[in-house]
Write a structure and sequence with these properties.
Length: 495
């Protein structure tokens, strides 16, 4: 049993000690071969059958599976001064050609079937993931989806007007508000840690800003949201009464310029929105402007909510490559922006948002969670939750090696794991003490195809999840045929 599995499952309580024990065994087996099918990871018919029985047990829900990990995540959060809680939504598609999974729902259309997963990923400012602090998983109702699509096709404007009139609690976008509320709950549980909730442009929802207004006796998390809507802003005395957000911030002086590494992006669907357009990887030169603004409350069915003061930072690219949209972010935040250092800190925090995109890639490409076959959602969702823990572990090991390179690898890996990998990959005699975590991760990455050349980037999650699977096979061989086993056999034969 891997040590981290025992620590992560320490608070599990399924109401049956046998289920608690089986939970640890299943997590241990599947985490050692995350890309493999469940039968391959389990290794035998008996263990495979036991794993499926675990997922099919009526006491096992996805909330119960994720619960111990959330408790452990909260413990890790409390060990840091600042933690970022990043929320986003991903589609988990389980479309089947022969059989449709019971309990799943339509995604963008009825040809694609699955679930929506909206986790709250805890990350340090150094981008080390600490775990999933909260999650919502749901499927759309088919009849409601059909009615909505029919109304949109018949009269798009009427459909949009009706949607605007709905209270936030009746919209799917309520998940962003709930994510912020859960961030505030975490802030209350770890008062010694500054919690910063981060959302992309889908989280640009006025109710979230209103929820964040400080109230006596109610701890609030700080927040950063990338703006999407050009909201009305209350003007100062002597100006016309209302202006718009973008023009208000753009009218302020440039605070400074900076450089930022921009990742390559392929076109994200048919949308014409700027944030979905393709771009090349480049080093972008950016101007930074900042202002404190008062957002005017939008019209709502129950009346216009109160105005809210927020800080805004506008980041715009200078001289983008010909034919490409310039990089442009407008960040709204509760964090202070009264100095260049504090403005840069907000930007650096928001840049960590990309970690949740990597997390989704590990979950779906590394753990292949969409390829797990179950007949109904009741049994599939606990499996999804378990792989959410495994995806975190892969990212955690990868990023911890970058931030704590001199840590002993024995803190994360068993003796048979590091000795087997060191012997096979390096070909050198075993050292007297375990190698550093950085050395160990480079050896594991070589098992996953990383060449380790001077100009190569550090190993990413993909090479790590491939290498860690091979590492476990080597560790089992070490236990079966390694020096200690050979010595025992020799002593036994002499007797």
């Amino acid at each position: 049993m891997q040590r981290w599995v025992e620590e992560e499952c320490g608070t599990s309580d399924f109401g049956d000690q046998r289920l608690d024990a089986r939970f640890q065994v299943v997590l241990d087996e599947l985490s050692q071969k995350p890309s493999a099918s469940i039968p391959v990871a389990c290794g035998s018919w008996g263990e495979t059958n036991a794993a499926y029985r675990f997922f099919q047990n009526r006491r096992v829900s996805w909330q119960e599976v994720l619960g111990p990990h959330q408790t452990a995540t909260l413990r890790r959060i409390g060990q840091h001064e600042v933690v970022l809680l990043i929320q986003d939504t991903t589609e988990v598609e389980v479309t089947r050609r022969r059989q449709q999974m019971t309990g799943a729902g339509p995604l963008t259309d009825e040809s694609r079937w699955g679930f929506y997963d909206h986790p709250l990923l805890a990350v340090t400012p150094d981008r080390v993931p600490l775990g999933v602090a909260h999650a919502e998983i749901w499927a759309r109702d088919l009849e409601e989806f059909r009615e909505s699509q029919a109304a949109k096709a018949h009269d798009p404007r009427a459909k949009a007007k009706k949607h605007r009139e709905l209270p936030i609690e009746e919209k799917e976008s309520c998940r962003w508000l709930e994510g912020y509320r859960q961030s505030c709950a975490v802030a209350a549980q770890v008062p010694g840690t500054k919690i910063v909730a981060i959302s992309d442009s889908e989280g640009d929802i006025y109710e979230c800003f209103a929820e964040a207004v400080p109230q006596p006796g109610a701890p609030k998390a700080e927040w950063i949201v990338r703006a999407c809507q050009d909201r009305c802003v209350a003007g100062a005395e002597g100006q016309r009464r209302y202006r718009h957000l973008w023009e208000t911030v753009a009218a302020t002086p440039v605070v400074e310029t900076m450089k930022l590494e921009v990742r390559e992006q392929t076109r994200l669907g048919p949308s014409d929105r700027k944030r979905n357009q393709p771009r090349t990887a480049r080093t972008a030169r950016l101007t930074i402007q900042a202002a404190r603004v008062t957002l005017r409350g939008p019209q709502r069915p129950g009346g216009r909510p109160v105005d809210v003061q927020v800080n805004a930072i506008l980041i715009r690219e200078i001289d983008p490559p010909p034919g490409e949209e310039p990089v442009e972010w407008l960040l709204l935040t509760s964090l202070p922006i009264n100095s260049r250092k504090k403005i840069r800190r907000v930007i650096s925090y928001y840049c960590c948002r990309w970690q949740i995109e990597i997390y989704f890639k590990v979950l779906k490409s590394g753990c292949k969670v969409e390829e797990r076959y179950f007949e109904d959602a009741e049994h599939f969702l606990p499996c999804l939750a378990l792989y959410m823990v495994i995806a975190w572990r892969i990212m955690y090991v990868t990023m911890l090696g970058r931030q704590c390179p001199d840590m002993s690898c024995a803190e994360l890996f068993s003796e048979e794991e590091w000795k087997a990998v060191y012997t096979v990959v390096s070909g050198d005699p075993l050292p007297a003490t375990p190698p550093t975590l950085q050395e160990m991760l480079l050896l594991i990455a070589r098992l996953g195809g990383h060449l380790g050349r001077t100009h190569d980037d550090p190993p990413g999650p993909k090479t790590m999840w491939i290498g860690m699977q091979r590492m476990r096979d080597l560790a089992l061989a070490w236990l079966a045929f390694g020096p200690a086993t050979a010595a025992r056999r020799k002593r036994k034969s002499c007797v």
